[in-house]
Design goal:
The chain has 250 residues and is of the alpha/beta class. Helix content is 29%, strand content 18%. The structure holds fructose -6-phosphate. Fructose -6-phosphate binds next to loops.
Length: 250
């Protein structure tokens, strides 16, 4: 089931997502989180940092997996997703760095890295709660339009629009944005126990309309979420502006 909640602000979404993380951490003995990168989860990570800081939450027993990674950036490159999670989450909470597994964007054998990643997720017992953003072209993880709905973790070529959208993290220079990445597949993402998608701003409105009201199709990978039994979509008014239905405003 897919539930849509329209929030007043990204901070508000961060608080609701913080509640979802806290619920999993309270319920599961060794919780496993799926962490997204890009700007959409930042309010969630701010909220987690706040809760750990005031001791209302601990991530000390939590393990985490990243959704995707650029190919060709070393893990200590500040623009790598691993470095972003170290900065945004590990550096500001009690989540141990050793409990975080990301895809190795510098792996010499990328196919072996992707197989090992799938195995690591399985060995951890699967992901309990997966945070997601969505691209303006409807990608989740880096599963670009045309990705099979049964895809697993694999290398992908980034769509020109995604590289353009992400140039803001590379001094505004699209040429610096890596052309390839490793990403969890759509089927991998759908195996998580619960999915939480965050989207803010009008540039996401069409992708959110497709996610909620469009037919499930490879053109809009985000529509695959409709096949998952437990999905919450947190959007601000701009990202939800093309929706005919919203289940609740919070
Ligand atoms: C990042 C990821 C991507 C982003 C998407 C939106 O780990 O998987 O799918 O969630 O590109 O990016 P932002 O949040 O920067 O708009």
């Amino acid at each position: 089931m897919l539930r849509v909640v329209v929030v007043d602000s990204p901070e508000h979404a961060g608080r609701l997502a913080g509640d979802a993380v806290a619920a999993v951490v309270g319920r599961v003995q060794r919780p496993v989180l799926g962490l997204a990168t890009g700007s959409s989860p930042w309010p969630v990570y701010d909220e987690l940092a706040r809760r750990v800081d005031d001791s209302s939450l601990s991530l000390a027993q939590t393990r985490a997996f990243l959704l995707d990674e650029y190919l060709g950036l070393l893990s200590d490159d500040p623009r790598s997703y691993r470095a972003e999670i170290e900065r945004e989450v590990v550096g500001r909470t009690d989540l141990p760095s050793t409990a975080v597994r990301g895809l190795d964007g510098a792996a010499s054998d990328v196919e072996a890295e992707c197989c090992a990643y799938e195995r690591s997720i399985r060995d951890a017992g699967g992901i309990d709660l997966q945070l997601l953003g969505v691209g303006s072209d409807g990608h989740i993880g880096f599963n670009e339009p045309g990705s099979p709905l049964d895809s697993r973790t694999r290398p992908m070529e980034l769509a020109p629009r995604t590289r353009q959208d992400n140039a803001r993290f590379f001094d505004g220079d699209v040429e610096q944005v890596p052309a390839h990445c490793l990403t969890q597949g759509i089927a991998t993402i759908l195996e998580a126990g619960e999915l939480l998608l965050l989207a803010f701003g009008g540039s996401k409105a069409e992708a959110i309309r497709q996610a909620v009201e469009g037919p499930v199709c490879e053109r809009w990978p985000v529509t695959a979420l409709q096949r998952h039994p437990h999905v919450t979509v947190l959007v601000d008014r701009a990202a939800g502006s093309l929706l005919e239905r919203a289940d609740s405003t919070a």
